[in-house]
Amino acid sequence: MIRVLAFIRRRADVSRDTFRCHYEEVHVPTALPSLGGVVHYVRQHIREEIFGTPGFDCMTSFDYRDVGAVRAAFERIEGPQGDAIRRDELRFMDKPANVFFAVEEATAWEATPARAERARLIVCVRRPEAEEPASFRARFLNDGLPALRTAVEDAGWCRPQWARPGVAQGIGFDAVTEIGAGGAGELARWASELEAKGARVIAVRVSLHETRMPD
User: Distance between CA atoms of 171 and 159, rounded to whole angstroms?
Assistant: First the structure.
């Protein structure tokens, strides 16, 4: 399986609520016929900005069966079959600002799922410019994630995702961490301390919108 995360920005003249409604009620049905090969399709819309200024309003994840499915999907969207999708994107997206890249998923910790449903958080981190990816990943695993678990309220599950070589557009993040928790707690403080060490951090609370894909 190959996961691609897309960070989608709304047009400046479109409110976040209008963007979310259009995405879910119009764009998703428009795009579905071209998403063959996608086995998991999830949108996570920003509901609250906790730290930093996100350059996106929704993080969409596409899980593809394999590399061939990724290529085929992009060819459909860029070809005649994707005309309706591309026209609709211009109605509510700031398309040139969209960023997407492939990631690999891991698990940092798991807890009782019921505890995780009160707040769904996304934390995006870009490593300091002088730090190598492997060094950043080790430091984030050993120091950053344990501190993050302590910072959020009633920590539930946590799934870090690491940027990997492959399909990409724009400047993305090195780590994108999804967290289920009771609340943000001291997340802003944690993010501020990480930024003081040269990283760039975005932290938001989101709502989950998932579409069941045909087998």
Answer: 21
How do residues 31-56 score in pLDDT, each as one tens digit? 999 998 999 999 999 999 999 999 99
Q: Which two tokens stand for residue 125?
A: 């981190």
DSSP string, 181-193: ESB-TTHHHHHHH
pLDDT, tens only, 155-193: 888 999 999 988 889 989 999 999 999 999 999 999 999
Q: How far apart are CA 199 and CA 212, in angstroms?
A: 36
Q: Phi first, then psi: what are they for 98, rounded to 5°? A: -70, 145
Neighbours of 116 (CB within 10 A): 21
Q: Give the integer Cα–Cα distance in Å for 102 and 94.
A: 21
**159 Cβ partners below 8 Å, 6+ apart?**
105, 106, 107, 108, 177, 178, 179
- The architecture (CATH level 2) of 2-211 comes to 2-Layer Sandwich (3.30)
Cβ proximity of 36 and 62 under 8 Å: no
Return the percent helix, strand and coil in the chain, to nearest 5. Answer: 35, 35, 25
